[in-house]
Specification:
By secondary structure, the protein is an alpha/beta fold. It folds into 4 domains: about 160 residues, Glycogen Phosphorylase B (Rossmann fold, 3-Layer(aba) Sandwich), CATH 3.40.50; about 180 residues, Glycogen Phosphorylase B (Rossmann fold); about 180 residues, Glycogen Phosphorylase B (Rossmann fold); about 180 residues, Rossmann fold, CATH 3.40.50.2000. The protein is built from 31 helices and 26 strands. The chain has a 7-stranded parallel beta sheet, sandwiched between helices. It has a 7-stranded parallel beta sheet with strand order 16-15-14-17-18-19-20. A 6-stranded parallel beta sheet has the order 10-9-8-11-12-13, sandwiched between helices. Helix 8 crosses helix 13 and helix 19 crosses helix 20. It starts with 6 loop residues before the first strand and ends in a 35-residue tail after the last helix. Keywords: Glycosyltransferase, Transferase.
């Protein structure tokens, strides 16, 4: 049996002069797996300084030597080259390449076209002609690659690119090329002394790199440190003006302009602190990655994708753009502390090794190229992504809204293209949905009987050509209007997601009677756990009559499972909360509402304090009961031991401070906070309500106690406080439980499988080969190995 043909990929660029994007191209093509890929490169203009590197790596390359004014001849030559090489995919970078390359790809009948975007903005507004060209050429563009998540708003909202076509692949470097060891032999050739403290910037001398801020900050640093010297690595037309500014600031003898260098690794060994001070459009700069790989601390402006690379105070420092004083304020202490420089540099290199290696970047690029060449959706019989719209009354900082934001981000854009509609107001999370690249429509519903809402919603669904509408059960207006609008707009699929249960405890229902009586109009009811389905059948009449029946699908909530927090994370979290390092700490993350019954936890904690007077309780969240609960804590004599933090968005950073996670709720579904705590390796003590019995096995991952029983809750907390070994065993089991059942990726794949099945994709399997089990009345998406089973009658 013959081996499959290699994928032919042609990269088309303006030239290969020295620059971050150009180095990205030459590095990537030389590392593509030649068993699977057959790369080539076309330069529309001259070769450029990096062109010889392609010959050294054996990648075929050609330069057309065409100027911008020779566009017709350049197009003709490019069509000829593409016909000769017959690529399966053409990858384009740079405006001239994007325009001529797409036209040439159409004329040469190249099957797939990718535009690789390396900027986060435009120095000057795009003219009407360029915007028109981009619109006209989008239908023949199969994907837009980016290098930083910060590009997504620019690409989607500013450029108007379809979110489903945008794919982010971080740049990467080979850490083995940068040993991080200072090399005294390099300094004399740069005009530096061995004992100088050197601050360096590596960037082309272009306006957006803002070398003026670097030089003005250098003047402030020089006034504070006589050993400070400054290295400007890069070339450009602005060099005479920058040299003049150095003379004007009185630091000409402190600044070395090296011009362009092809030995960046050697130059970095001569630098003590690295700087980038761009004021705009910086994406994922290669120079910064290389400095981090060389274990150099960096002080950079917080623009573009730089905050995705630098963790402020851990791997370097972030400062505002165009602020020389702020830049100098960070540089002076760094130059004065070798220990701090070494610590930040080591953390920077560790982050590169963990997240930004060249190997990882190349692997991701290869996978994306393969996906573009043979999109997953065609294997499932779907010609384009399924357009899913979630309808809410408004976004709130709650479990469902945060979960679905993460699920939207995790969807395969080749399978699902999500969007959001808010009937009344946008709410606090709408901007986060927009920033992630998902369209958000707000209909300004003014009241319960606003008759304009339904036709507006129908109009949005028709305009977006929506394939599926998703409504959560707790938004009553969207539960009614969303399904009615979907039917009026002839949307093929309607889903209702139920995220609660045990509401009979408080005299309420999860699904209103009218919603149960019209379930036959809904294509599927999405459940979080088997026990939730049993509750809805037993207590609310789901499935009892023909009109109350629909498909029922279990898609558990999930979280993104990161590295297990270590001792340093625990110490940092306790420092952040002002907690003693050796105290027993219990914590709860939940809205301060009657549902969560915090008063039960406070009463239990008061009992615990009798035997553990040094124990602390952290209460994360805000809500209508805050003042009442603060008064109760005072009345119970808990002042100083109970810490109310208010609403926090850095919960992940706080969780490592907890020894035990608590939940005292009256009713629940599958609470996200519990999953997040278990993912952080924290045992759980919670009331036995909702689907917690499906999540926490009593005695294995923590403990379950009766609802409202403060004495039982206190007893379990006391037992765990006295037995660190048992806590550690439960912590390990809790983490394993999340890894097995509650990964965010599995939640997204579950929704994808459901949507593909309801769309009539013609196959009962996803492209990854996992099946979809079906039954006559109820069915469940087949989970990965060892995941919880679907509903059973």
């Amino acid at each position: 049996m013959s081996a499959p043909r290699r994928l032919r990929v042609a990269f088309v660029v303006p030239d290969l002069g020295i620059g971050g994007a150009e180095r990205h191209v030459t590095t990537l093509v030389s590392r593509l797996d030649r068993r699977r890929f057959d790369p080539s490169v076309v330069c529309l203009g001259r070769e450029g300084e990096l062109f010889p590197a392609l010959a050294d790596s054996g990648v075929p390359a050609v330069a057309l030597h065409r100027a911008k004014r020779e566009a017709p001849a350049c197009l003709r030559d490019l069509v000829r080259v593409l016909r000769e090489t017959a690529p399966d995919v053409v990858v384009l970078r740079g405006y001239s390449a994007e325009t001529l390359g797409r036209l040439a790809a159409v004329l040469a009948r190249v099957p797939r076209v990718v535009v690789w975007v390396h900027n986060c903005g435009d120095l000057e507004p795009r003219g009407a002609l360029r915007r028109l060209v981009d619109v006209l050429l989008d239908p023949v563009t199969h994907a837009y690659f980016g290098v930083a998540h910060a590009q997504v708003p620019y690409m989607v909202e500013h450029l108007g690119l379809p979110r489903r076509k945008v794919r982010i692949i971080h740049n990467g470097v080979d850490p083995s090329r940068f040993d991080g060891v200072a090399d005294p032999a390099t300094r004399p050739g740069l005009g530096l002394q061995e004992d100088d403290l050197v601050v360096g910037i590596v960037a082309a001398l272009r306006p957006e790199k803002d070398h003026e801020t670097f030089l003005r900050a250098a003047a402030l640093v020089a006034a504070a440190d006589v050993r400070a010297r400054f290295l400007v690595v890069g070339e450009g037309d602005r060099r005479p003006a920058l040299e003049a500014l150095a003379r004007e600031l009185g630091i000409a003898d402190r600044v070395v302009f090296t011009g362009a260098r092809d030995d960046v690794g050697a130059v970095l060994r001569a630098i003590d602190v690295f700087v980038l001070c761009s004021f705009t459009i910086e994406c994922f700069p290669m120079a910064l990655l290389e400095a981090m790989a060389a274990a150099r601390p960096a002080v950079c402006t917080a623009v573009g994708g730089i905050p995705e690379m630098i963790e402020d105070g851990v791997t370097g420092h972030l400062v505002p753009p165009r602020d020389p004083a702020a830049l100098a304020d960070r540089l002076v202490p760094l130059l004065g502390s070798e220990q701090q420089r070494l610590a930040l540099g080591a953390a920077a290199r560790a982050r590169v090794e963990a997240e930004f290696t060249l190997e990882r970047s190349v692997q991701e690029a290869q996978q994306q190229l393969l996906d573009v060449a043979a999109p997953a959706r065609t294997a499932a019989g779907v010609r384009r992504p399924l357009r899913l719209t979630m309808v809410l009354d408004e976004t709130a900082v709650g479990g469902v809204e945060l979960l679905m934001l993460d699920v939207f981000r995790t969807f395969d854009p080749a399978v699902v293209e999500p969007s959001l509609v808010c009937l009344r107001t946008p709410g606090p999370l709408a901007e986060e949905y927009r920033a992630a690249g998902f369209p958000v429509d707000v209909l300004d519903r003014s009241g319960k009987f606003d008759l304009r809402t339904l036709p507006r919603l129908v109009g949005v669904l028709r305009r977006r050509r929506v394939d599926a509408v998703l409504v959560p059960h707790h938004h009553r207006a969207s539960l009614a209007l969303g399904r009615l609008a979907a039917r009026s707009a002839r949307v093929p699929t309607t889903l209702v997601a139920a995220h609660d249960m045990d509401l009979t405890r408080v005299g309420r229902r999860c699904l209103p009677r009218w919603a149960v009586a019209t379930l036959w109009e809904t294509d599927a009811l999405v459940l979080l756990a088997p026990s939730q389905g049993e509750y809805l059948h037993r207590e609310e009449g789901v499935g009892r009559r023909p009109w109350s029946r629909t498909r029922e699908v279990v898609v558990p909530n999930g979280v993104r499972v990161g590295p297990l927090p270590d001792g340093a994370a625990r110490a940092a979290a306790r420092s952040l909360l002002g907690l003693p390092a050796d105290a027993f700490v219990a914590g709860i993350v939940a809205r301060l509402s009657p549902q969560k019954a915090h008063h039960v936890l406070l009463e239990a904690f008061a009992v615990l304090r009798r035997s553990r007077p040094a124990a602390h309780l952290v209460v994360v969240g805000g809500g209508e009961r805050e003042q009442e609960l603060r008064r109760l804590a005072t009345d119970l004599g808990l002042d100083g031991s109970v810490h109310f933090t208010g609403v926090r968005r850095d919960v992940g950073a706080l969780l490592p401070a907890f020894d035990v996670f608590c939940l005292s709720s009256v009713h629940e579904g599958v609470p996200m906070a519990v999953i997040e705590a278990m993912a952080s390796g924290i045992p759980v003590v919670a009331t036995d309500c909702g689907a917690l019995r499906d999540m926490v096995v009593d005695g294995e991952h923590g403990h379950l106690v009766p609802v409202g029983d403060a004495e039982a809750l206190a007893e379990r907390l006391s037992g765990l406080a006295e037995d660190p070994g048992r806590r550690a065993r439960m912590a390990t089991a809790a983490r394993a439980r999340v890894e097995e059942r509650y990964r965010l990726e599995d939640t997204a794949r579950g929704y994808e499988r459901l949507l593909l099945e309801l769309a009539g994709a013609g196959s009962a399997r996803l492209p990854d080969g996992r099946p979809v089990r079906r039954s006559r009345r109820r069915w469940s998406v087949a989970p990965d190995a060892a995941a919880q089973p679907g509903l059973r009658r």
